[in-house]
Amino acid sequence: MSRPPARSRFRRTRARTALAAVVALAAGALSACGGSAGADGGGKGSSVTLRVGATGWKKEEALLKFAHLDDTPYQVQWSLFQGGDRQLEAVRAGALDVASSSEIPPVFAAADGKPNFKVVAVERGNTLNQEVVAPKGSAVSSMAQLRGKKVGYVKNTTAHYFLYELLKRAGLGWDDIEAAPLDPDKGIAALNGGSIDAFAGYGNAVITAHQRGARTIGSGKDILSGNFLWTASDDTLGSAAERRALADLLARIDKAYDYVRDGRQKEYAKVVAAATHQPVDQALEEFTAGEAQRRTGIRPVSAGATASEQRVADAFGDLGAVKRELTVSGFWSDRLSARLRKALAS
């Protein structure tokens, strides 16, 4: 591979110290490289490397490999984090180029008024496995019964948001519970150990909780918009080569889902099951149900998606979790949109 340009070398050097701090926060973030060298987003001699975040497990990396779309003409370095909030921390620290998250983490990452990132694409996806669960044997069977109870939740994520909204629907306020912010793995451990009465989580954490006998007492399925955001650092957006690479990567992810839906659901379920440690039939059922609820796909940013996140930001303002009024359009950008539309159509 040719020597990186000066700007990239400086950025990578500057990020090393920040990366060490962020990885400590990320509860053991892991990295792996994929793809082969190519142009600056599309030919020979590329020095482009995209450092991309993932949550739960490296789903996108595995998906691209399954669909035979991982031979990218640039390098992709995938890093695993406990949540989208930790990915945004890494982006802000210069240790990650691209983050994937729900609508919530960018709100908190921008709360100081100095975001150094932009939301550049929206992934429409299902909102299943976004739940408040009570442990096996618990007498708690509804959200209303959480008054005075200790409830774990993953701070600054979808879990934070739908827990707040579900409490409101049950006639409770945030102050009516003892809210305990916990990472997903610690939340499941606390739930099983009896130190919390319920836990608001998502994805693998909810799957694991159910495997251990937990039951659902509230769901964020119909509360959440189904918009999952792809966010890039300002440095990344400042490079034409990296913009080309990112648009191509997102289009490949979109095409990979089409590949799975084209009669390969069961084979892909085996990949998911191996990563999430669940039966293949269960993984298949969850994928099928998720696609039935909302077909997964990548889209450019839009006014509707921006307005959706503004509603989320306003809710956290009402909750008092965000101390300043935020206009989310300030950290959304259509700078990738034209190239992404072209890549999606190719």
From TrEMBL:
<dbReference type="Pfam" id="PF09084">
    <property type="entry name" value="NMT1"/>
</dbReference>
<protein>
    <submittedName>
        <fullName>ABC transporter substrate-binding protein</fullName>
    </submittedName>
</protein>
<dbReference type="InterPro" id="IPR015168">
    <property type="entry name" value="SsuA/THI5"/>
</dbReference>
<feature type="domain" description="Solute-binding protein family 3/N-terminal">
    <location>
        <begin position="49"/>
        <end position="272"/>
    </location>
</feature>
<feature type="signal peptide">
    <location>
        <begin position="1"/>
        <end position="32"/>
    </location>
</feature>
<keyword id="KW-0732">Signal</keyword>
<dbReference type="InterPro" id="IPR001638">
    <property type="entry name" value="Solute-binding_3/MltF_N"/>
</dbReference>
<comment type="similarity">
    <text>Belongs to the bacterial solute-binding protein SsuA/TauA family.</text>
</comment>
